[in-house]
Amino acid sequence: MDDKPGIVITGASGRMGRMLLETVAASDDCRLVGALVRPGHDWEGRDVGEAMGGAALGVTATSDALEVFAKAQAVIDFTTPEATVEFAELAAQARAVHVIGTTGLADDDLKKLEAAARHAVVIRDGNMSLGVNLLVNLARKVAAALGEEFDIEITEAHHRHKVDAPSGTALMLGQAAADGRGVTLDEAAVRGRDGHTGARPDGAIGFSSVRGGDIVGEHDVLFAGPGERVILRHVATDRRIFALGALRAALWGQDQAPGQYGMADVLGL
């Protein structure tokens, strides 16, 4: 059993962290070896299974990242940009695969992740689901096939607790559409229209965000042309798809050379 990869979950007490704990603990292909929480959190020092209201899992929640990373072959991380950058350095020191689902990373953060990837495998993506990554590929192909007379609009919806907008997945879709068109997303993107905005610029890639209730994740890519529309859509109904995708990435990364990868690499798309 000890030859199976040991996995640490960061942000273990959060919504995604709990799902990851359950997913890893239930897998026959790996071992749950650590669960990280913030210092002073009421989970600290408790068995994570019991902290979630279930049976003991034999793993005690801790705030000591250095200690748990040292015994890990992979770290799955859906936290905050600041925390993820810190974890990337520690995961690289431990030569552990670092699977990153954190969104909202700034350019400086990405440079630090690039540095960590010189020493270890870093798998980062705005969305870990198979369906979304297929949608990204489709968005790129449709954008390349249709001319600028087709306006591109990306709409995303998430639960009321999500703190960043547009979502990382929406930005992935926008980047794919920009790549298909051969333009840069920074130049083409239009976000959050309000007031007297004037006519829509040619070639713009628009974004809009909805936040409410317990929506897991919905993404639409609209190509609106003269007399017809093409709509690509993905609806997530269970957060477990992201946990399963992240676990798949952590296992895939065990056989890879240091470097930066995405879910398209993991899935062979």
Automatic annotation (TrEMBL):
Similarity comment: Belongs to the DapB family.
Catalytic reactions on record: (S)-2,3,4,5-tetrahydrodipicolinate + NADP(+) + H2O = (2S,4S)-4-hydroxy-2,3,4,5-tetrahydrodipicolinate + NADPH + H(+); (S)-2,3,4,5-tetrahydrodipicolinate + NAD(+) + H2O = (2S,4S)-4-hydroxy-2,3,4,5-tetrahydrodipicolinate + NADH + H(+)
Name of the molecule in the record: 4-hydroxy-tetrahydrodipicolinate reductase
Summary of subunit composition and partner proteins: Homotetramer.
GO molecular function: 4-hydroxy-tetrahydrodipicolinate reductase; NAD binding; NADP binding; oxidoreductase activity, acting on CH or CH2 groups, NAD or NADP as acceptor
Species: Pelagovum pacificum
UniProt pathway: Amino-acid biosynthesis; L-lysine biosynthesis via DAP pathway; (S)-tetrahydrodipicolinate from L-aspartate: step 4/4
Active-site residues per Swiss-Prot or TrEMBL entry: 158 (proton donor/acceptor), 162 (proton donor)
Residues given in the record as (S)-2,3,4,5-tetrahydrodipicolinate binding sites: 159, 168-169
Domain (Dihydrodipicolinate reductase C-terminal): residue spans on this chain: 131-267
PROSITE patterns linked to this entry: DAPB
Bilayer-crossing regions: none
Gene3D superfamilies: Dihydrodipicolinate Reductase, domain 2, NAD(P)-binding Rossmann-like Domain
Amino-acid positions noted as binding NAD(+) in the UniProt annotation, renumbered to this chain: 11-16, 101-103
A cellular component term, taken from the record's GO annotations: cytosol
Binding site for NADP(+): 38
Functional note: Catalyzes the conversion of 4-hydroxy-tetrahydrodipicolinate (HTPA) to tetrahydrodipicolinate.
Matching Pfam families: DapB_C (PF05173), DapB_N (PF01113)
Annotated EC: 1.17.1.8
Domain Dihydrodipicolinate reductase N-terminal: 7-128
A biological-process GO annotation: diaminopimelate biosynthetic process
Alphabetic keyword roster: Amino-acid biosynthesis, Cytoplasm, Diaminopimelate biosynthesis, Lysine biosynthesis, NAD, NADP, Oxidoreductase
